[in-house]
Write a structure and sequence with these properties.
The protein is mostly helical and about 70 residues long. Helix 1 runs antiparallel to helix 2 and helix 1 packs antiparallel against helix 3. The chain has three helices and no strands.
Length: about 70
């Protein structure tokens, strides 16, 4: 499949949205980490927040590859 540079521009715009979301989720994710060992209900929440924290990395990969598929945070 041929790469389209328009997708790279689109993912740069999405990355500008993903950074603040990832920063907010990172704070909550760090605060939940100690309680994950005590209560198993925090494990699913932690896993979901970790996906949002890593979302900018996935957007960066989509920018590099000019990917047309959406990098989902979850």
């Amino acid at each position: 499949m041929a790469s389209n540079p328009i997708y790279a521009l689109f993912w740069i715009i999405v990355l500008a949205i993903a950074w603040p979301i990832a920063m907010a989720c990172a704070v909550i994710w760090i605060l939940i980490q100690p309680f994950e060992a005590c209560c198993t209900c925090f494990k699913d929440i932690s896993r979901s927040l970790e996906g949002f924290v890593k979302w900018p990395q996935d957007c960066g990969t989509a920018i590099k590859n000019c990917s047309s598929s959406c990098p989902s945070p979850v």
